[in-house]
Structure formats: structure tokens, C-alpha cells
Design goal:
Blueprint lengths: L3 E5 L3 H6 L1 E4 L16 E6 L2 E14 L2 E17 H5 L9 H6 L9 E4 L20 E5 L14 E5 L7 E7 L4 E3 L1 H14 L5 H8 L7 H17 L1 E3 L3 H9 L7 E3 L5 E3 L7 H4 L1 H12 L2 E6 L5 H15 L6 H6 L3 E5 L6 H4 L1 E7 L5 E7 L1 H17 L14 E4 L8 H10 L1 E4 L12 H7 L4 H8 L5 E5 L4 E8 L4 E2 L9 E10 L5 E2 L14 E4 L3 H6 L14 E6 L6 H5 L2 H4 L10 E2 L6 E2 L5 E8 L10 H4 L3 E4 L4 H7 L9 H15 L19 H19 L4 H8 L25 H11 L3
Parallel strand pairs: 1-3, 7-8, 14-29, 14-30, 15-26, 18-20, 26-29
Antiparallel strand pairs: 1-6, 2-5, 3-4, 4-5, 7-11, 8-9, 9-10, 12-13, 16-17, 18-25, 19-23, 20-21, 21-23, 21-24, 22-23, 27-28
Length: 751
């Protein structure tokens, strides 16, 4: 008997070269029993473009290759959820519904169980052999004209109990139990020791119990459809299996090896396979650290930016998610708009109110300068052997501190230096750790004790006074405030520090760094110096054995801002060959500023937005541009139909073809309108259509009803008033609603 396997080919060269390699004898388990003469459907990037037959196994270069002949090719390529899982000749067993979807370590091939009536594998017409999976009320079974041959139905007793009664298959004349599916369901509920109703599963899925929002949304869609139509078409059989048949699935969290959080039982992404489309853009960032993703609305440009970052991290040896990068503070999102300014982006004056209510203006760093400072601080941390800067960030403050009076109290300076402490002698002769700030203000009018106790933080940098222009020690705060009277010189209010630069023999002049202000005799106060610039004074030797982690600035809607105004003189510094080499003088702080080479800028641009001027020419020369276009194949692979009738991929293709003819390709609609966890049922499609897509089309054509009707059909508009008509989603006897029928006509027979 013929055997068929699904093979997961993550390496493009092997998929295109018609072979699969394991590195040694110990990895032969990846073949999972595959033999010569067996058929293989190889998947790459989520698609199936070929049918293989295994010709031989050959030992090469210390490994073993399974070598295949191509039996046939598929155009368009097959999709897993739309063709393979729904093939009526394949039994929906654990392999088909679980293992070929999820990453299974040690196995690259999975055998597919074939139905008894399966023809020769080479004869299977995957485009015409599809079956439907439905959840139906038992009363629906009497309406035999509604069902199609090969439909598999999970039957529910009634909307109140929502208990699963059976799993049946329709052969065109009558229903009979689908043993494979039923046995799979029984196995799962036996493991859970209980049979749950759909209502119970929904209760478990909400945030107060198992906290599974995707499952909660899915079950809400199922129950909503059962109440209104008495049936729910499960367009994705894997989602049906995961959300209903496995029972109560605990979504407990665990930390992955890279520190990110993953969910048990959620399908694991095959990173190499999923990120392939974005790897070329990640490589582009090495060529140019500034890229812009441009395309029509809804093409997933912001999502693409996150995946490019993940691909770039993988290239650098950091296999981590975007969430991990963001949690580490290495990614920053901003959105440009017409009011966005240089002061917000680079630096500017900001009003601040002191404790007495007085307003003063301080120079504050903007988004770009902040993330650039984080990059520089990380570089300093990398070069230091000790982990003393673990708590130092771009927001850490820099303080001027005197350790006793210069010249007359050198013994105090030496004692505190040896103990690695900073201290002040003002205030009460007791601990103020438990005092309120108001109590401290009453006891010490200088404000220094309050600064030491409350304002200073672990990770802050301290400069030890030497003269009105110079410092003789640099340290980092490593402890909270404490009090001690063990010394006789009366400086009891203290913090522990770690000295990171001793410049007593060659004091460092910080006059220019301190905005050309002299240091005062006050024992402790904050300097208007950012921590990144302060750490430049350490002058540590570069550690070339450790690679700096990259940082990312994602600028959404980059074309909406006044680029020349926002970037200012930094337009020059963003070029790759000027990073960390050329500096400019910032106008507010008067500081020298360079852009680090490990900061990458990703912009997104909506090409349908014609209300904003074209990008500044100078910016165009400094960015690489990547077009992100609507991808109907992505929809087809994930959501072949919605509600069992409407093909969102065909609908999108038809609409975009007409938009291109009437306006241009820049105004097409993106695929993300038809993707996402919120698009499960035809009710979801109803909301997307009426409250997202139609309003967008109305905007494109300035509310010209005739133009929009030429694209989507006249049934969506009242001929007399021109108002939008809300078509019913209630199914008729044929199982198709007026709403679905109108959508299908857009791509089937025109309008």
C-alpha cells in the first residue's frame, strides 16, 4: 500500500534541490520511518509546491541524504489548512492536526493516515477533494440538503448545555461516526478525566482562569454562530482541534532558554521557516542601518518591522522574540505627525515644576538621543570586566559630590574613598531612612539630604569634586541610603559606591561637558550631564571578544512628519559611514553628539497617504526602501474561507485589481484586514467589511457611491439614498447569507 508523508523543509536549498539531510546516524529519527518508494509532500515557508517520491538514501559528507524525484508540481501552491488538512482522503488524526503543524523535535517527516477510499496518491486532486469541518446543533442533522459529502460534524445537544454528543461524517446520503476523529476526542477527554461543554471551556479560557484570550475569542465565535445559525464552519481544522477537542488546555507559562515567555500547548513556530521572508531585509540592515518599509495600508509594515528585528537578532546569534528585545529596552516605537518636533526627537527645553510650584525650563533629551545614550551605555558595560553598571541606564543621573572640604579635610576624603562610600554631614545625627520628604525638608534646608536619600538612585553616576572645573574620582551608586556613626568625623548619611575611574593624579576637566558651568562648593547636587556622556570619561579598553547588542528605533508613519525639521543636523549622522565617527554640536545642550553604529532605524510609510508631502530628498538618500505589498497567498494559507463560503484571498485580489485600475497600486488594501485572531466567523467578517474596508474605500473615492459600487457591487448601497445597506448574515436554506453571497459575487462573476 502506498504511504504518504509530510516533510518540513526549513532549508530552501534542500527544498529546491529535492533532498533532505540529517547530519549523522544518530539523527536518522528525523526520517521517522520514511522508506524508498514513499511519497512526500514537502512544505517550505508554509506552502506545498511539489509531490516527491523517495528515490534513495545516500551517505554524503558525514551525513545522510534522502534523495527525491519530483512527481508533480502544484500551481498555485497548496496550503496546509486550505488543502492538506481538508483533503477528504486524509484521516484527521493526531499527525495531521498536531504534529505536522507544531515543531516536533527529532522528526522532520510525519506519515499521513489515508482513508480506505483514497485513490493513488499521484491521482489526488487537492483542489477538489476538500472536506468541511463543522460544529452543528443536533437539530441541524435533519436538514440533509445543507451538508456536502465528506463534511465532518461535531454535534452539540442544545445551546443551553453545549455538550458534544458525537462526531459524524456525511457520505452524501446519511451520517455515520467518524471513528478516527471520535477516538482522538475520547483520548483527549480521558486524559483530562472530564468531558467539558463549550460553555465550560469558555469559562476556563477567560482571564480569571486559564487566561487563554485566543481560545476565549474562538469559543465566543462558535457559540455566537450556534445561537444565530445553529452551525459554525471551522475553516481551520487545527484551531478546532486545539480550542474544542483537546478539552481544558492549561496555558501555564514557562521561560524559554533565551529568557522569553512561551505558552505550553501553543503551536511552536519553526523560526528558520517563519523568518525566511524577512531574512533578506535583515541582511539589508547590515548594508544600510536605516530602512523604510512602504506600501498600502494593512500590509503589515509595523508587524514586518518586528519580524525583521527577530531575523536580525537571529543573524547576530540571539534567537529571541521581539517581546524579549522590547523588554530589554532595546526597541522603541514612535509615530511621526505634523506637530512632532526636533525637541521631541533629539533634545529641547521642557518645563518642570519644583517642590515650591515654580516653573523652570530644563534641557531634556528626545527619543533618538535617549536610545542612542542607551546604546553607548551598553558599549561601556560591555567593556567593563565587572558588572558594576548593571543598574545604569540612559535615565540615570549624574551627581557632583564633595567628600569633606578640599585640602582641610583630606582625611575624610581618603577614608570614604577607601570604604567606597559617599557621605554628607548635614542634617540630623540619626537615620532618616523612614522619614518622609517633608520631615527631611524641615530638618535640612539645603536639600542635599533629601537628594541623597530620595532622589539619588542605584546606578547613578557620581563625580567627586577636585576643583571648580575638575573631578578626581568617578563612581556608580550601588546601595540605598543608610546611616552610620562609626567614624568620628560626623558624616553619617551615606551610600555605597563602586569606583570605576581614579583620576586623582590627572584630574579630568568637565567644564565643557557641564555646559561650561563651574562646579560649586555645595556638597551634593545633580549635574546636567547625561549618564552616557559621563561614562565616556572612564576610557576603558574595548573588549573585542564581546559583540554589542543592537538597538532599534521604529518610526511609524515616517512620511507624516516634517523630516528636515525633526532630524535637523542629525540627518548627516544617520549615514552608516558616519556612525561613531563624526559628531555634531547639539544646539540646546552644547554637547558633542554621535550616533552609535549599533542603532538601527526602521521607518514605515503608508503609500496611500497623499495628504503629506513626499519624503525629504536628503532622507531618501540615507534610507533603503523596501516595498511591502498585499499578499493574498498569506491569507490563503491561514484562512482559506470564512464561514465556509467566502474566500478572503479571492475577495482581496478582486478588490485590489479594481482599485489599481481606478486609482493606482499605492491605494490597494493590505492582507492584514483579513488576518488576525479577531477574524474567525462571518460575524467578524461583517464588522471588518462594514467598519474598516468600506469606510476606507469611501475615503479613497471621496464618498462617491458610484465609484465604490463599481468595485464592491450595488447590493451594498441603497439606490435612492446612496446609504450603505447592512446585508443579513443569517444563512438561508442553502447555507449562504445575503452578505456572503454579495461578497462572493465580487470575485466570482463581477458585479
Amino acid at each position: 500500500m502506498e504511504r504518504l508523508f509530510i516533510g518540513k523543509f526549513t532549508k530552501k536549498e534542500q527544498y529546491e534541490g529535492n533532498y533532505y539531510r540529517v547530519n549523522n546516524e544518530q539523527e536518522k529519527s528525523w526520517f521517522n520511518g520514511l522508506k524508498e518508494g514513499d511519497y512526500v509532500l514537502p512544505s517550505h515557508g508554509g506552502y506545498f509546491g511539489k509531490l516527491f517520491i523517495c528515490k534513495s538514501f545516500e551517505k554524503r559528507d558525514g551525513g545522510i541524504d534522502a534523495v527525491f524525484d519530483v512527481v508533480k508540481t502544484f500551481t498555485p501552491e497548496l496550503t496546509l489548512s486550505g488543502h492538506i488538512v481538508c483533503c477528504k482522503y486524509f484521516k484527521p488524526d493526531i499527525n495531521l492536526l498536531n504534529k505536522v503543524i507544531k515543531a516536533t523535535r527529532g522528526y522532520g517527516f510525519h506519515e499521513i493516515a489515508l482513508e480506505d477510499n483514497c485513490p493513488g496518491i499521484e491521482s489526488i486532486d487537492f483542489y477538489k477533494s476538500q472536506r468541511r469541518f463543522l460544529v452543528v446543533m443536533e437539530e441541524m442533522l435533519s436538514n440533509i440538503n445543507f451538508f456536502k459529502p465528506s463534511d465532518i460534524c461535531i454535534t452539540i445537544d442544545n445551546i443551553k448545555n453545549t455538550s458534544i454528543q458525537d462526531i459524524l461524517e456525511f457520505n452524501g446520503q446519511q451520517f455515520h461516526r467518524h471513528d478516527t476523529f471520535w477516538d482522538l476526542y475520547q483520548e483527549k477527554i480521558d486524559q483530562g478525566a472530564k468531558k467539558y461543554t463549550l460553555v465550560q471551556l469558555l469559562e476556563f479560557a477567560d482571564s480569571r482562569n486559564d487566561a487563554a484570550p485566543k481560545k476565549e475569542k474562538y469559543l465566543q465565535a462558535v457559540l455566537g454562530a450556534l445561537e444565530s445559525d445553529k452551525y459554525f464552519v471551522a475553516d481551520n481544522a487545527v484551531a478546532l482541534y486545539d480550542n474544542i477537542l483537546v478539552g481544558r488546555k492549561q496555558y501555564t507559562q514557562k521561560a524559554s532558554g533565551n529568557g522569553s515567555i512561551t505558552d505550553i500547548d501553543i503551536p511552536e513556530d519553526d523560526i528558520e521557516e517563519d523568518l525566511t521572508p524577512y531574512q533578506q531585509y535583515a541582511k539589508l540592515m547590515e548594508f544600510n542601518p536605516n530602512i523604510i518599509l512602504y506600501g498600502p495600508p494593512g500590509t503589515g509594515k509595523t508587524y514586518g518591522a518586528m519580524r525583521i528585528i527577530e531575523a536580525f537578532e537571529a543573524m547576530k546569534g540571539n534567537n529571541c522574540s521581539f517581546k524579549t528585545v522590547n523588554d530589554e529596552g532595546r526597541a522603541k516605537f514612535i509615530t511621526f505627525h505634523q506637530a512632532f518636533s526636533y525637541e521631541e526627537f533629539v533634545e529641547g527645553l521642557r518645563p518642570e515644576t519644583d517642590s515650591k510650584g515654580n516653573i523652570k525650563y530644563e534641557i531634556k533629551p528626545g527619543v533618538l538621543r535617549k536610545i542612542a545614550e542607551e546604546c553607548k551605555i551598553q558599549e561601556t558595560k560591555k567593556n567593563l570586566k565587572e558588572d558594576v553598571l548593571s543598574d545604569t541606564t540612559g535615565d540615570s543621573k549624574v551627581w557632583k559630590v564633595s567628600l569633606g572640604r578640599r585640602n582641610s579635610e583630606e582625611h575624610i576624603y581618603k577614608a570614604l574613598k577607601a570604604k567606597e562610600e559617599i557621605a554628607i554631614g548635614y542634617g540630623p545625627k540619626e537615620s532618616v531612612a523612614d522619614w518622609s520628604d517633608e520631615q527631611i525638608d524641615e530638618a535640612d534646608k539645603t536639600g542635599m539630604l533629601k537628594a541623597l536619600r530620595s532622589k539619588m538612585q542605584i546606578g547613578d553616576i557620581v563625580f567627586i569634586f577636585n576643583s571648580i572645573r575638575t573631578i578626581r574620582l568617578i563612581g556608580v551608586v550601588v546601595s540605598d541610603y543608610y546611616y552610620t556613626d562609626e567614624d568620628s568625623f560626623g558624616y553619617g548619611h551615606r551610600r555605597k559606591v563602586k569606583w570605576i575611574k581614579d583620576c586623582e593624579k590627572s584630574p579630568i576637566d568637565i567644564f565643557r561637558l557641564n555646559q561650561e558651568k563651574q562646579l560649586t562648593l555645595s556638597s551634593l547636587y545633580e549635574l546636567k550631564i547625561n549618564s552616557a556622556d559621563a561614562l565616556k570619561l572612564i576610557d576603558v579598553k574595548e573588549d573585542k571578544t564581546t559583540i554589542s547588542k543592537p538597538f532599534y528605533l521604529i518610526i511609524d508613519e515616517i512620511n507624516r512628519g516634517n523630516i528636515a525639521k525633526i532630524f535637523g543636523e542629525l540627518i548627516t549622522l544617520i549615514e552608516k559611514d558616519k556612525r561613531d565617527r563624526i559628531s555634531c554640536l547639539l544646539p540646546y545642550s552644547g554637547q558633542e553628539f554621535t550616533l552609535p553604529k549599533n542603532l538601527y532605524i526602521i521607518g514605515t510609510m503608508n503609500t496611500s497617504d497623499r495628504s503629506i508631502a513626499l519624503l525629504d530628498t536628503a532622507l531618501r538618500r540615507r534610507f533603503a526602501f523596501v516595498e511591502i505589498t498585499p499578499d493574498t497567498s498569506l491569507i490563503e494559507s491561514r484562512i482559506p474561507t470564512i464561514g465556509g463560503n467566502v474566500s478572503p484571498a479571492k475577495l482581496l485580489a478582486a478588490i485590489n485589481e479594481k482599485i489599481t485600475d481606478k486609482i493606482d497600486r499605492d491605494h490597494r488594501i493590505g492582507h492584514s484586514y483579513f488576518l488576525g485572531d479577531d477574524l474567525i466567523s462571518k460575524a467578524d467578517l461583517f464588522y471588518v467589511w462594514y467598519y474598516k474596508i468600506l469606510p476606507l474605500l469611501m475615503e479613497y473615492f471621496y464618498n462617491d457611491i458610484k465609484q465604490v459600487a463599481d468595485i464592491v457591487g450595488e447590493r451594498f448601497f441603497d439606490k435612492k439614498t446612496g446609504e450603505i445597506v447592512m446585508l443579513s448574515i443569517k444563512a438561508n436554506d442553502s447555507g449562504i447569507s445575503d452578505f456572503e453571497n454579495a461578497l462572493m459575487k465580487i470575485y466570482e462573476r463581477g458585479n
